[in-house]
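Hello forum,

I keep getting stuck at the same step: I have a sequence, I want structure tokens, and every attempt I make locally crashes halfway through. Rather than fight my setup again tonight, could one of you with a working pipeline run this one for me? It's a single chain of 274 residues.
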Amino acid sequence: MDTPSKPLVTYHREEKVGLLTLNRPEKRNAMNLKLWTALDEAIAQAEEDESARVFLLRGEGKSFCAGLDLGPDNDIIQAINAPQGASQKVTFFNLVQKVQAIHTRLERLIKPTIAVIHGHCLGAGLELILSCDFRICSRETLFGLPEATLAIITDVGGLQRLPKVVGPGHAREIAFRGHPFDAERAKEIHLVNSVYPDTAALEGAAMEMAREIADNPPLAVQGAKEVFLFDEGATLEESLEYNAARSSMILPSEDLFEVMAARIENRKGNYKGA
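Reply #2:
Ran it on my machine without issues. Output:
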């Protein structure tokens, strides 16, 4: 049972870096409906935090996320085990769509997101990190989509997002085999950008990357993300037109003049998003 007073997901900011942390370490952050709902609430906090310029998604304890919580207290498992019939199927369908929407909300945060992964990243955990802009991990991390071995279908975005990240062949292998694979394999197929020797090095690198992004002019970074998101559902011509329009929206800007001044004066720029 989860402790009622303990937040299942925490959100706080360190300077310009927002940190979303799964906080169910005693269950290796296995996902249940309460944890997903808490994540949704934390994402809402992130959306409202105007001072944050980049977000890290992390997991407290020994693992980032061990997958779906198969215990009887999980509302999703209860929906699966309910008396069969039309009502049971509609209830389960609605729960799946609710979780899908949470992943999409994370994906569509206008500011960049980095998944910081250690220990285990299985099933629902792997689906979750695919909603981030990019992913880094520690060497001991194990990845996988074991749903096929559990007689269920991966259903909250993994089958849609994974092929875009690793290609259709690798995605199908991962989904059909249901096997665990290590961090080096994850890097080889471009599921993660970088692998670090341990969690301390991982956390340090994550903050360094996040601060580097946060120090860039925010209108340019956020505009680039908007173009990436738009491109996913558009033709090349539509995306190019949107890209031109989005670029023209932020030019000229105070940040652009600050870039020029900082380079001339050989100093670090101070960007305000204006």
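The beta strands are 9-14, 17-22, 54-59, 113-117, 120-122, 134-138, 142-144, 181-182, 194-196. If your local run keeps crashing, start a new thread with the error log.
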